[in-house]
Amino acid sequence: MKEIVEKINASFEAFQKDAVAQVETSNKAAGTRARKASLELEKLLKEFRKASLEESKK
How many Cα neighbours within 13 Å face the side chain of 8? Predict the structure, then answer.
């Protein structure tokens, strides 16, 4: 589960950097990267939820 949290943090940092670049400088490529990172975050958060539920059942 620790690995998942580390991946979430890395993905969020990438999303945040690219989202700020899109908002502040209208960087279209950064917007594309931010959207991709948001999809990755969604998958990782679902994975975390599943692992967390499994841990709570033990």
Answer: 13
Does the pTM surpass 0.90? The reply is no
Q: Are 19 and 34 in contact (CB under 8 A)?
A: yes
Identify which of 12, 2, 9, 11 has the alpha carbon closest to the alpha carbon of residue 51. 2
Predicted confidence (pLDDT) per residue in 1-44, tens digit = 999 999 999 999 999 999 999 999 999 999 999 999 999 999 99
